[in-house]
Amino acid sequence: MSNAIIDTAILTEVADAIREKTGETAPIKLGEMAGKIESIQGGGVEWPVKATLSPADAMIPCDITIDDFTGFSNTSYAFQYNSNVRKIITNNFPGGNMATGMFSYSGLEEAEITSEVTKLTGTFSTAKKLRKIKFPTTPLATASNPFNGCTAVQEIIVPSMDWWANSYTGTGASTYPNYNSLINNVTLKDYGGNELTNAIIKDNDTGHYARLTISSISHGGIQSSMDNYMFNYSRFIADVSIPSTIKTIGTYAFAYADFGGHTLTIPDTVTSLGGYCFQYVANLDRLDLPSSLTSLPGSCFATTKIKHIYVPDSVTNIAANCWNGAGSNINRVAVHFTRTTPPTLASASNMFSTYTDVYVPAELVNTYKTATNWSTHASKIKAEP
Questions:
Q1: CB–CB of 285/308 below 8 Å?
Q2: Predicted confidence band at 144 (pLDDT cuts at 50, 70, 90)?
Q3: How far is 105 from 113, CA to CA, in rounded Å?
Q4: What is the CA 223 to chain-centroid distance, rounded?
């Protein structure tokens, strides 16, 4: 892999030479230079500046360090679609603005931002090979979906947890990658290489959250509601209790989360759950729903793998598809009811999956088996052992 330092004066000279050869007058993006040079050479035209070009401008894979961008009037989309630059270290940007789409759709694998950058706008969007990102010591002020579509991200390096928390709670909250980027073994580390836990990642452009390794839920950014997608694809490493300040749990809030055999406690302050909020939850042996709930939303536990779910007597209505697809042939899901009058089911079909068992007190088995819409699932209704 080659290394290069881009000199502003040289690039200006190259751009001027290209315009002289081609007759162009418009500004030339950095990422366009290699192709234009190749085109000129292919046409048999002498190219005297070729010897001064750095590897970054040649058609070979390379790492580059950009010491100073202040000489460029426009760096937007400079490396867009450039498949050769593998690693970028950036030092100085005019006004702290790392321009729109600078590395979008590129083959960039690693980015290190070493100087203060206050603004990112789609800077690395859809750079699908980007796997490592290092942020500077100064938290970003504003950002708009800079890492959207970066599906290969594995490691994010920040100065400290305080830096991360300040960026999360401040105006830089949308700095972080789209949640789809973070589902495959992402680790968050400080400059010393220590893994950080309990760090929230939010993409304000989509409203999605993602979580890394979690040992507790106590972040100051969580107020009265747990937003949509907040803990989806999370990995819990300890028993978790939701703070009593929480009143609502949003759609997909815990979808695809892995509890690692630990427990989840939901306080009685929670009065509503969002649809799909426990979809595909794995390695959670038991969930006791709070008595503050009066209904369960549609597909709340669809395709879940929670082994035992205890529904309180306060729940009187259950929306469609609540346990649709839950469990598997090697991991059945048991749903426990004690309410004397069966809750109202919105529909009969797709309410309980093939791998779901419904347990009620022995004296209520017949009541549940003959109730409206429950009768469709009579074979699944059993007496508590």
A1: yes
A2: low
A3: 18
A4: 20
